[in-house]
From TrEMBL:
Domain of life: Bacteria
Protein name: TRAP transporter substrate-binding protein
Signal peptide: 1-23
Organism: Uliginosibacterium aquaticum
NCBIfam families per UniProt: dctP (TIGR00787), TRAP_S1 (NF037995)
Keywords tagged on the record: Signal
Keyword GTP-binding included in the entry's annotation: no
Coiled-coil annotated spans: none
Amino acid sequence: MNRLFKSIVIGLAVAGSLASAQAADFKPRIVRFGYGLAEDSNQGRAVRYFAEEMGKLSGGKWKVKGFGGASLGSDPQMQNALIGGAQEIMVGSTATLVGIVSDFGVYDLPFVFANEKEADTVLDGPFGQKLMDKLQAKGMVGLVYWENGFRNLTNSKRPINKMEDMAGIKLRVMQNPVYIDMFKGFGANAVPLAFSELFTALETGTVDGQENPVTTIESSKFYEVQKHLALTRHVYSPWIVTVSKKWYDGLSADEKKALQQAAAASRDFERKDSRAASAKAIEVLKQKGMQITTPSDTELGRMRATTTVAVDKFAAQPGHAEVVKELQAELAKLRK
Ligand code: TF8
């Protein structure tokens, strides 16, 4: 009796939730979600997770299709496609958004976040939201931050133990002035280049090195063309999931709500998955033959001292001093 009652209740609940998914206002849609990394990467896994969630929440009405390996274009190209309404969703580094909202460069200031927990708290809190909201006036809507991760340095020339070892190394950086200034400060020859062109540039020797989290170094197979890895953790790099505002404005309230819900679920999934992958990546890279160095805290401190030039240059631009101050205030609260 008891069991029968239970199964009736469960049956009604399932029927109810199906009915409400159908009653909710969802249009059948094909949604293109572009990203730059390989399908077999933390980014690809999280895009697939998001697609499944959206499928469930929309009662099967939304078909979210992932396009990996920059097959819809580099990060800056996808941003323009979102603004123009030619693509619905993308994920990429906040660093490549500086051409649209320059304040995003604040996340790129070297050695800002001490650990993942600080990053999560600031990004998911009012500071991260306020910055995200600035995208709307430019034709994009920010949904959530994912983790790209702490960035480390690889190159084909020599092991890096101290700043001087970087001298003259042609190092690919993202298309972002903070990165260019930071690596010039370290003595490297910083070359801005889209990520989609990076593997070939490393392979042909157009550049000697690059910097990215270990997860990306692994999933992009940079170990095939790079011998040395230095664990510098010089910047914590967020990813941000953004959608086209033109497209977003045409969604129903139910659709917007589900989109936000799936995005939040994908964020939690992605961070967990990336952190697990990151913990394993160093061992994998070693097995692949990379030689790994860990510059001492003293050496990292010397590197950090040179970055005041990059930081001051960023802060000197209109509105940026305020943003830097706000971020520092948030961090000070956390460190109390
Ligand atoms: C870079 C970034 C990229 C990501 C990815 C393409 O080095 O870290 O790996 O933005 O989404 O350009």
